[in-house]
Amino acid sequence: MIWHELGPFTIFDLETTGRSPVYHRIVELAALRVEKDGSITRYQSLVNPGCIIPRSAVAIHHITDEMVQGAPHFAIVGREFLNFAENSTLVAHNAHFDLSFLQESLARTGLPLWKNKTMDSLRLIRTTHPGLPSYSLQNLRARFRLDSDSSMQAHRAAADVEWTTQLLEIALTAAIKMSSNN
Q: Is 155 a catalytic residue?
């Protein structure tokens, strides 16, 4: 069995104005959908948060107020994302963070909450590769020598989605091998 045959999966990542889903807002959402046949489609949008992005957040993801000024608000991006991810399993690295922001933002804008399956690539990689010194996305990226090109910027949603997809493949491939050996 090939890992994507367990799908479809929608791997997603968010960049935000801070750490609290109640008090902070999404400024970028990116996703990569992998169908059971292995075909891939991508979604990415900056999001106008309707507030000033704190310098501390800009220092991490480099998304500025000027960049999001003409971007759609979450009500539009959220609806597009729900349509994009429909009938798939949502996957994120440290999924609690991204899912809490997603659900809070969906509720705030009157959109339906995500009720389908979810998966945390962090928990999965910890299960299939126990004992690693760090499970942060950037450390796993270095450890597994994940594909990267010079345009991929850490802590930007599209790049983090690409790396999370590669980790999902590594972890699910290992899990399939482990289950076939039992």
A: yes
